Amino acid sequence: MILHLATFRWKDDVTAADVAELTDALRDMAAGIPELRSYVCGESLRLRPGGADFGVAAIVADEDGLNAYLDSAAHAAVYERLLGRMIAERAAVQLPVESSAWL
Amino acid sequence: MILHLATFRWKDDVTAADVAELTDALRDMAAGIPELRSYVCGESLRLRPGGADFGVAAIVADEDGLNAYLDSAAHAAVYERLLGRMIAERAAVQLPVESSAWL
To answer: What is the per-residue pLDDT for A51?
Structure first.
């Protein structure tokens, strides 16, 4: 399976309300994408210095599942409506994980 | 529980051998830190554009566990010997996850 990790640093004008709305929208999106075996997202707890404001961790079965998720109309809709204009910086990686992986 | 996510972009002079050595060192480190419930790290599979080269995902019980991991002598040793000189950019976040979370 594949763990997709993404960290985001917001633009200065992003508000707490924007982040709350985005978090709900991403969770609703994830609930409707069957390829997502597991999905967590949210504002960082900021327990350590890290330079990022928000994170996403998603588990999919394989590359096709990853593309189905990231290329979905639902993901595009959240990006266009909210996420796209909020991002100052984004970093993403994919790591292989065991089939027992769950978030 | 807490999911700690970190993404790294390397400096231009970092080699594949550096990354392989770092990956082994981080995994050995993680095996010796009881507070780490779950730990995965590695070079990104680069399946999607993302701007980062390497990722870490670690699950700990709580903030004390997170600090025990990140402030451990073992983590400091890997940072000083390898990781510190490789980093061009790092982004890290912490997200709350269910107790069933496992990587």
So the answer is: 81
Instruction: Say if the Cβ atoms of A57 and B89 lie within 8 Å.
Output: no
Rounded CA separation B5/B33 (Å): 17
Which tokens belong to B18?
A: 């550096």
Q: Where does residue B26 rank: exposed (0-12), middle (13-18), buried (19+ CB within 10 A)?
A: buried
Per the document, the length of chain B is 103
Chain A contacts of B100, Cβ < 8 Å? Answer: 102
Burial-class residue B4 by CB neighbours within 10 Å (0-12, 13-18, 19+): buried
Q: What is the pLDDT of residues A33-77, one digit of tens each?
A: 999 999 999 999 999 988 899 999 999 999 999 999 999 999 999
Per CB-CB distance under 8 Å, the chain A contacts of B40 are 3, 95, 97
> pLDDT, tens digit, for every residue of B38-62?
999 999 999 998 889 999 999 999 9
Measured CA to CA, the distance from residue A48 to residue A79 in angstroms comes to 27
For chain B, give every domain's residue range: 2-96
Helix (H, G, I), strand (E, B) or coil at B53: coil
Q: Identify the CATH number of the domain defined by range B2-96.
A: 3.30.70.100
> Residue B97: its chain A contacts at CB < 8 A?
40, 103
Cβ <8 Å between B91 and A9: yes
The answer to whether the CB atoms of B89 and A93 lie below 8 A apart is: no
The pair of structure tokens assigned to A26 is 């991403």
Q: Per-residue confidence at A25, pLDDT binned at 50, 70, 90?
A: very high
